[in-house]
């Protein structure tokens, strides 16, 4: 069946085709023969005479006909008298309207032969038939093929993949399928591609039945792409992917194969439904990964070449097909590598240590820094704990500063180790990035690669002797309000040293908020209540600045619940364990200790005096006490 959609692709004008075939104009030939000699009629004639320019022929007409001598080709048998030939009548006296000086019929042997050939072809060749012919020449849009007559072979139908130069087929004998016969235009269109596809379809079906995974087959490289090469196995193309060409790294398939190369490949996979075949070339030799763990044991040292540098590391070629990755973290013990290209470049030769092997994934982990000694292994010998070091402040964080002790080795100076007395909000309050600082090494953790540094440890802890000696309970000092909180006020006594003025110590009356009494930055005179060296705290009081010693004692008694003077008990003599009872005024001491009223505390501060006063004011009570004592003595 003719593919009409395919026919529509051909864009060859009738003029181009007729000119290429050197034919007569359409409608010029009369295909019928009659009894009378007429124009465009094919007749049989007998040669009467042969000279250098013309051949005279008798065609049974009232006058003879003439044929140009040059219509006989050089390789053709020359004309002879008495020979019978088929001729086309071109001009007849009185018919053509053009008088002939010789009064003879003009005949053509070559045109008669062409017409006969077309008649023979039309009788023997049909659309869909396979024909053989020689490619004679190239015309616009394709080639001419001589199958007895010249037929048209479009360029798109020369091969499955259009060749770069169709002119290379001139002079070759080829087979084609007849796509179209146009009798009115006297032309035939043929396709070599369709014949190849038909033959390949037959071969493909047979080949698919023969192929098996693991087979070794020969094929011809027909096309090359970025991802691989297509190999003709003899009726079906298989894909030789770039990753299956070599165990080593290749950039493009053209490095391994070229078009028309004959290869011996292995069948890796067959998809019968989609008619796709995966081929392998490298699989013909053993994989270098099979004995990788014996050849490259973990911990062994090898030389390799950098073949690729990525942001996360560099790939090192150990041999063809064996590449390992040196991760960026495995490049240096001390240098801070932002990108592998800071240390290595493509084609560099490096020495590496095998860190790990994954045979299934075909991966090797390599290290460069392991070639050298880890500086952390002996850092405690070079920088022992307690030693003083000088280093550059490399970075600041909210919790401290990193100080470079050696190249690539940093220590952390925590904010809590910057000052004995100051509350450090940020390391920049004490030190500056890029500046040199002197510190003491406090601790070393080699496994976690951490070093703790101290700045305040460069001096003696002032809370041990200095502060307790200079600030003692009862001492009056001046300071500025540095911070207000809901529970009190922080007062700066000196640079970096603060004391807490509790809200209850701000005034004699009850204070709900410190802002009611003091302001930020205000200078105050306060009294030292306590100095706690262990907790590194100083307690202050503002309300007690004017208090006398007696008031202080009463307040202390109130806070602790212990009277400042012995209580004299009256009203009876008890046993050895103590008096029988105590006056009511003493019982109120504990209750008054919780009172916020200093006056109340002052009233109950001396219960003995209170008891005596009560006795003086109430004589009857004194008499009852005397009677009770007398009764106790009588019982004894």
Describe the protein's topology.
Blueprint: H1 4-7, H2 14-21, E1 42-50, E2 54-58, E3 65-68, E4 84-91, E5 105-108, H3 109-124, E6 130-139, E7 142-146, E8 150-154, E9 173-182, E10 187-191, H4 192-210, E11 216-225, E12 228-232, E13 237-241, E14 262-271, E15 276-280, H5 292-295, E16 301-310, E17 313-319, E18 322-327, E19 349-358, E20 363-367, H6 379-382, E21 388-396, E22 400-406, E23 409-414, E24 436-445, E25 450-454, H7 466-470, E26 476-484, E27 488-494, E28 497-502, E29 523-532, E30 537-541, H8 549-560, H9 584-592, H10 598-603, H11 607-617, H12 619-635
Parallel strand pairs: 3-5, 13-15, 18-20, 23-25, 28-30
Antiparallel strand pairs: 1-2, 1-4, 2-3, 4-5, 6-7, 6-9, 7-8, 9-10, 11-12, 11-14, 12-13, 14-15, 16-17, 16-19, 17-18, 19-20, 21-22, 21-24, 22-23, 24-25, 26-27, 26-29, 27-28, 29-30
Structural key phrases:
5-stranded mixed barrel; 636 residues; alpha+beta; 18% helix; disordered C terminus; 30 strands; 12 helices; 5-stranded antiparallel β-sheet
Question: How do you describe this structure in short?
Answer:
It is built from twelve helices and 30 strands.
In words, what does this structure look like?
With 636 residues, the protein is an alpha+beta fold. The chain is 18% helix and 33% strand. 21% of the residues are buried. The C terminus is likely disordered.
Overall geometric form: rod-shaped
Q: Mean pLDDT score, rounded?
A: 78
Distance between the termini: 150 Å
How many strands appear in the DSSP assignment?
30
The helicity comes to: 10-25%
Strand order in the largest sheet? 1-2-3-5-4
Q: What Rg, in angstroms, do the CA atoms define?
A: 60 Å
Low-pLDDT runs of 5+ residues are 4-9, 11-17, 19-35, 95-102, 567-636
Class derived from helix and strand content: alpha+beta
The helix count comes to 12
Percent strand: 25-35%
What's the assembly state of these chains? Answer: single chain
Tell me about the biggest sheet?
5 strands, mixed, barrel
């Amino acid at each position: 069946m003719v593919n009409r959609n395919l026919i529509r692709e051909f864009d060859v004008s009738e003029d181009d085709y007729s000119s290429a075939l050197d034919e007569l104009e359409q409608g010029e030939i009369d295909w019928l023969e009659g009894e009378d000699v007429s124009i465009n009629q094919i007749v049989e004639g007998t040669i009467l005479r042969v000279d250098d320019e013309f051949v005279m022929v008798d065609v049974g007409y009232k006058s003879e006909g003439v044929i140009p001598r040059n219509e006989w080709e050089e390789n053709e048998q020359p004309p002879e008298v008495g020979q019978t030939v088929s001729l086309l009548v071109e001009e007849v006296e009185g018919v053509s309207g053009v008088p002939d000086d010789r009064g003879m019929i003009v005949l053509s042997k070559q045109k008669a032969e062409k017409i006969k050939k077309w008649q023979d072809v039309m009788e023997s060749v049909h659309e869909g038939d396979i024909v053989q012919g020689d490619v004679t020449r190239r015309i616009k849009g394709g080639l001419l093929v001589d199958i007895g007559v010249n037929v048209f072979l479009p360029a798109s139908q020369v091969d499955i993949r259009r060749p770069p130069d169709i002119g290379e087929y001139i002079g070759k004998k080829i087979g084609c399928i007849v796509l179209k016969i146009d009798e009115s235009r006297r032309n035939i269109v043929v396709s070599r591609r369709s014949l190849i596809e038909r033959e390949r379809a037959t071969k493909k079906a047979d080949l698919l039945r023969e192929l098996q995974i693991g087979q070794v087959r020969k094929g011809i490289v027909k096309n090359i792409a970025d991802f691989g090469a297509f190999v003709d196995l003899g009726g079906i193309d298989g894909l030789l992917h770039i990753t299956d060409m070599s165990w080593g790294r290749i950039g493009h398939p053209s490095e391994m194969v070229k078009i028309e190369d004959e290869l011996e490949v292995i069948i890796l996979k067959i998809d019968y439904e989609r008619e796709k075949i995966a081929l392998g070339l490298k699989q013909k030799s053993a994989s270098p990964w099979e004995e990788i763990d014996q050849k490259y044991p973990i911990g062994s040292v090898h030389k390799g070449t950098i073949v690729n540098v990525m942001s996360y590391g560099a790939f090192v070629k150990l041999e063809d097909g064996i590449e390992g990755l040196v991760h960026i973290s495995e490049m240096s013990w001390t240098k801070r590598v932002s990108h592998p290209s800071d240390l290595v470049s493509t084609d560099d030769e490096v020495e590496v240590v095998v860190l790990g092997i994954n045979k299934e994934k075909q991966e090797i982990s390599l290290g460069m820094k392991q070639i050298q000694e880890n500086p952390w292994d002996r850092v405690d010998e070079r920088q022992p704990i307690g030693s003083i070091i000088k280093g550059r402040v490399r970075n600041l964080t909210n919790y401290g500063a990193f100080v470079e002790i050696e190249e690539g080795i940093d220590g952390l100076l925590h904010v809590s180790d910057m000052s004995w007395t100051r509350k450090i909000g940020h390391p920049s309050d004490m030190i500056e990035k890029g500046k040199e600082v002197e510190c003491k090494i406090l601790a070393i953790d080699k496994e976690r690669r951490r070093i703790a540094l101290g700045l305040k440890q460069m001096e003696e802890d002032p809370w041990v002797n200095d502060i307790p000696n200079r600030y003692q309970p009862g001492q009056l000092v001046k300071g500025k309000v540095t911070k207000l909180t809901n529970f009190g006020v922080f007062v700066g006594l000196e640079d970096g040293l603060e004391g807490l003025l509790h809200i209850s110590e701000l005034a004699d009356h009850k204070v709900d908020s410190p802002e009611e009494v003091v302001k930020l930055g205000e200078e105050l005179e306060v009294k030292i209540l306590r100095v706690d060296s262990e907790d590194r705290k100083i307690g202050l009081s503002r309300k007690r600045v004017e208090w006398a010693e007696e008031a202080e004692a009463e307040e202390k008694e109130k806070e602790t619940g212990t009277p400042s003077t012995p209580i004299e008990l009256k009203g009876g003599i008890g046993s050895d364990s103590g008096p029988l009872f105590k006056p009511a005024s003493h019982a109120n001491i504990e209750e008054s200790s919780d009172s916020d009223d200093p006056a109340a505390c002052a009233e109950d501060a001396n219960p003995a005096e209170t008891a005596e006063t009560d006795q003086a004011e109430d004589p009857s009570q004194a008499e009852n006490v005397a009677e009770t004592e007398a009764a106790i003595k009588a019982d004894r």
